[in-house]
Amino acid sequence: MFTGIITGVGRIVAVHDLGSSSSHGKRLTIETPAGYLDDVGLGDSIALNGACMTATTLDTSLHQFTIDISAESLDKTAGLDALGTVNLEKALRAHDRLGGHIVSGHVDGIGNVLQFTQVGESWLLVVMAPQSLAKYLAYKGSITVNGVSLTVNQIADTAAGCEMRINLIPHTVDNTALGQLRAGSSVNLEIDLIARYVERMLQADPQQPLKPAV
User: Fold this and answer.
1) C-alpha atoms less than 13 angstroms from C-alpha of 1 in its C-beta half-sphere
2) What percent of the chain has pLDDT over 70?
3) 28-37 pLDDT per residue, tens
4) What fold is seen in the domain 8-90?
5) Which of the four CATH numbers 3.40.50.10610, 3.20.20.140, 3.40.50.300, 2.40.30.20 does domain 109-200 have?
6) Least C-beta-crowded within 10 Å: which of 12, 48, 128, 199?
7) Cβ–Cβ contacts within 10 Å for residue 186, how many?
8) For the residues of 175-205, what is the DSSP string, one character each?
9) Mean pLDDT, residues 149-165 taken together
């Protein structure tokens, strides 16, 4: 589990194919800030742009770690198949503060940035979310964009999907990789975990008994 509070900005410095076909994934080498890996062990979970991954090797002297990402994960995420900056967050510990909201690190869909412009001291981020996610998005609700916990300020349902308007304070822009977004950028989106359970409760038939596992 994660909180959507970014703990470091890293960089994918190498991408290697794990096979020759489209069914094979890739191995990524990520460079981190100095000291970032001091409390990380092999097998630990680290979210990259909001996607939960497993550290498969560690090199603290070079401040680098590697992850293996499957073809399925590559197909369902954005920004994890090429060199570039990524938001990093270590898995939540039991005694940590929940500064953002509960995040699972499972990407629900890919959004498209329509606008990213400075307005006063802040920044306006406008993202078009897939239509399939529209029912999970609400005014003042939580959304994770490339691993960052953010608040939706305005929504508008359109034929193309759900348009979200989000305000970013300078601290967020300066301390995450979101500052590199541009119109046309693809971003990983994760809906609020609570919305999943609300949908399930609304769909469940209270008259239908549960079947025992076989």
Assistant:
1) 14
2) 95
3) 999 999 999 9
4) Elongation Factor Tu (Ef-tu); domain 3 (2.40.30)
5) 2.40.30.20
6) 199
7) 15
8) HSGGGG--TT-EEEEEE-HHHHHHHHHHH--
9) 96
